């Protein structure tokens, strides 16, 4: 992420100022002084044992090396509705360095019951644009690009460098497309789906074809009848982010399992597929 | 032989969460589905003893079946 010259430049500043902990203000100032990105300054800090204060409460759960790995990671979120809004929020706060957000839709009134990014003021606006603004409110070091597009119509360049994809879609047809696409790219897919009080999450390792197995030719799930209440997407999204971060950190066992949860009875089922 | 049936989410409605049935030898999963009134196409995940299985799977004493409906929302 940093050239030797950039490291020397930052090293001199950190030494001169005796920086032991990095505040937002200091990060911004050093970024201005050096012309380097906020992300680069944070990355350098972590590499040298200095914790950016905004990540202080991540440490303990993530090591400094882990936090640095997250900051260097690039992921894609496909779908920025119920699941995607929360996934974006948590990835930004976790400090995942580069996020590509994809959604062709605009906010509607029916989104207000559950979608974190949906507000009265936002109605009619594109979800992908709002996602970029929200990310900037939380963590300006994170580089966010957004595509107002269906996943099927994304330009090839959008996928460049993406090492993990979050399936936050709301329809089975596009999910199957995404499984095929990530298989061809050789990139793991963090799947999440919800319906009523129920949901499922899991990692689709390239070539495992778990979604094809589960959905087959099916067009609809139980959400068509049960709707999507406020709490289910938040739970599913948090499970997805936990799985995804574990995957990025390389600490996740590579097995073909799904987790099915039932919030009505507070049950959690591990399924081997 | 005794077979345990575990239903999840919407499959429990009007049925049960868990039940043990006494069934004749040679019973297949599809026979159980017919008696439950659940069509194979309504099922996303069908497990016998926690492992992926097909409706024509022949059951043996002590097996347990788990059935999950599809969820696709986001």
TrEMBL record, chain A:
It comes from Carboxydothermus islandicus. PANTHER family: TRNA THREONYLCARBAMOYLADENOSINE DEHYDRATASE (PTHR43267). This is THIF-type NAD/FAD binding fold domain-containing protein. GO terms for biological process: cyclic threonylcarbamoyladenosine biosynthetic process. InterPro entries: ThiF/MoeB/HesA, ThiF_NAD_FAD-bd, Ubiquitin-activating_enz. Residues 55-272 form the THIF-type NAD/FAD binding fold domain. One of its GO terms (molecular function) is tRNA threonylcarbamoyladenosine dehydratase.
UniProtKB/TrEMBL annotation, chain B:
InterPro entries: Beta-grasp_dom_sf (IPR012675), Mopterin_synth/thiamin_S_b (IPR016155), ThiS/MoaD-like (IPR003749). SUPFAM superfamilies: MoaD/ThiS. This is Molybdopterin synthase sulfur carrier subunit. It comes from the Bacteria. Pfam families: ThiS (PF02597).
